[in-house]
């Protein structure tokens, strides 16, 4: 039967002339024009609160970081929460944390069945929290806010059904140093919080009207000509990254005048399992690549569930930062040094992790070894005529959710390349 299928495919090739499908390979992002490399300490300087992840945070008016953890007990013990609240004091390497009990804020439920914070921001003494899994099934975003430092929360009556992962842009202490009178929110451009997409979209709202859904506008212009629309259907991407966009967070590095976006994608919908940092001169871009690291684990090992750069912990020259991440379901902090044209090469006893462009994957390369060969054909053949969601890794090279003859054409056109 398979031999007959291959014969039919070869006959099809005679008619289509071995034409490469349009868009089979996506261009890579340019390297950052400002940040030339980034060097992380080999080991975290802090490891606390074992058994909890997420740790989205904001720099508050009392000089503390207010944070939210997920699927754990935070800095204490007792009931496992889907959304717990806490406060962090100090500066690395010396910090401490304490849970905040809030009957109106904390949530129960495991994984996608429980609401979880994905964005946190203080503006004028009020903490705003963007929450994913608002439908308690992994979809939708919702807003909550607290005027008493995370003890009491009010929840919006509205939800954003079109977008499932949501994050605020953080500036300085209590939103000091903001570029204008707006608050900005970034979204992975899809309704589900767990499936990666290829695009980041952006919204803004006057900082006095954050709780008013009707006041939100979505970026609908271009980098050179920003425009905004109240219609969510008019939204346009501010960053396209086909390797995968999912867990994002954005912080303004004021000394360097660059926006830093962390991104963690775990290849749940055909993307690439990677941790990435991007930068840009404006919230809408143009975004460039600062750091890329392929991950071998899709669980919470290595860089874990999500990553955040607290603005409080950015040095005076902007070249030393700390990254909070949930490695192995634990609050961990790593120090990083950014090299720009204005500082000398980094000297350290720890070998620096220099940004190198990721391996450019070729169409037809199912096993991602940089070659299109017989092993990739075997992957295609084993999945032929199946409906799939994992993309090229299972032979669906055109990512139309079906392994078929067109995917074979892509493999054949790139064989031995």
Automatic annotation (TrEMBL):
Gene3D superfamilies: Dockerin domain. GO terms for biological process: polysaccharide catabolic process. PROSITE patterns: EF_HAND_1. Residues 1-24 form the signal peptide. Keywords: Signal. It holds the Pfam family DUF4185. Residues 127-290 form the DUF4185 domain. This is Beta-lactamase. It comes from Candidatus Gottesmanbacteria bacterium GW2011_GWA2_43_14.
